[in-house]
Design brief:
The chain is of the alpha/beta class and 189 residues long. It is built from 4 helices and 9 strands. It binds flavin-adenine dinucleotide. GO terms for molecular function: oxidoreductase activity.
């Protein structure tokens, strides 16, 4: 049984996993390898990094996720089932993971959210008017369903990688704080 499982190992999910694993929680990621950032040849607006390709940024994040102690799994999540003390997550290949806290960081993919009963609306921060968000999400990604969290675009934020990373980090900190009962802060010297 994991403490935290992240569905989606893109920018926001990866960032959340770095923080929950570094905060001492047994964390897993399941990722289907389709992060939007892979489409970006050069990123110029990630503060602190003058220029980087999307693929390199994503690889760096994955390296940090694994270095923090997270179990990284490639695969596609097909079903999420609520259980008494958490969630059971089932992949298309039949593999199953049990977790106490579940983070949905799937960006454009909304099918899991619909099956969990969340209400969707247009994310008005994206000009096309075609992108969805979930209604009623707290600023840190907490939902109205216990131990279930949503990041980034799906939480109504803008489509920017630094915002996705910051949102994942804020959520990771909230979950560690909730789980340990101590305000979590990660400061290196
Ligand atoms: C064309 C384009 C250009 C962009 N240019 C910039 C830019 O210059 N600067 C900038 O800051 N941002 C840019 N962005 C936005 C940036 O890509 C996003 O802000 C960022 O990728 C969002 O991170 P995320 O974690 O929310 O989603 P993603 O990084 O897309 O990650 C979502 C992950 O979830 C996984 N997933 C989805 N469903 C499942 C499932 N059922 N099971 C398992 N895994 C699943 C996907 O495979 C993916 O890896 C651009 C986006 C696009 C499309």
């Amino acid at each position: 049984m994991l403490d935290v499982l992240v569905i989606g190992g893109g920018i926001s999910g990866g960032s959340a996993a770095i923080y929950t694993a570094q905060g001492g929680l047994k964390t897993g990621v399941i990722d289907s390898g389709k992060s939007q950032i892979k489409q970006v040849t050069k990123i110029f607006n990630y503060p602190g990094i003058k220029e980087i390709s999307g693929v390199e940024l994503l690889e760096n994040i994955k390296d940090q996720v694994i270095a923090a102690g997270t179990e990284w799994n490639e695969g596609i999540v097909e079903t999420v089932k609520k259980k008494d003390h958490g969630f059971s997550v089932i992949l298309t290949d039949g593999n199953e993971f049990d977790t106490k806290h579940l983070i949905i960081a799937t960006n454009l993919q909304t099918s899991l959210l619909e099956s969990l009963g969340f209400e969707l609306a247009v994310n008005e921060k994206v000009p096309s008017g075609k992108i969805k968000k979930v209604l009623g999400i707290e600023p840190d990604g907490t939902t109205n369903q216990p131990n279930l969290y949503i990041t980034s675009l799906l939480a109504g934020l803008s489509s920017q990688s630094v915002i996705a990373a910051g949102h994942g980090a804020a959520l990771g900190i909230s979950i560690v704080t909730k789980e340990t009962g101590k305000t979590y802060m990660w400061h290196d010297k």
